[in-house]
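Bug #2210: token dump truncated for Macro domain-containing protein?
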Amino acid sequence: MRIEIVEGDITGRTVDAVVNAANSSLLGGGGVDGAIHRAAGPELLEACRELRATTLRDGLPVGAAVATPGYGLQAQWVIHTVGPNRHAGQTNPALLASCFTESLRIAEGLGVRSLAFPAVSAGVYGWDARQVAQVAFDAVRSYAARSPEGGVELVEFVLFSPETVAVFRSVLESGF
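Reproduced locally. Full output below:
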């Protein structure tokens, strides 16, 4: 599995799936979540409402993941995951790691070969970008070591700010 770091807008990536740093309601929000909902179009909100009305009546739990079609995105799929909110006392790195491993598990089940992640839980959810990068890279590498050949081949971390890109590159190059 190849890991790349890209500065830019995750909604414009030409990959099989993008990961949405969603809130548990799945009904849109700010940041990456809002951008993905806007770019995908109203069908994404309808698909998320359907999930809430059927299988996820209480919302998507922290660390879990679920997929919907990508609708207006270039990506065929959106994999929604809810990162832990440090401000709400959700400080266990295992919850954050689960966001990455569960997203990869869902992607593999869909036959996804290329996947783009944002910096889940960095920013408004209060996690330090360096810790997010360390947890993310560790989770991706551990998943790759356990997964069979022919699964996800490319994982992109698509980051909006040059500062976050620099942190992720530093962590990746250091081998942490």
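Output looks complete on our side. The CA atoms of residues 21 and 32 lie 6 Å apart. Marking as cannot-reproduce; reopen if the truncation happens again.
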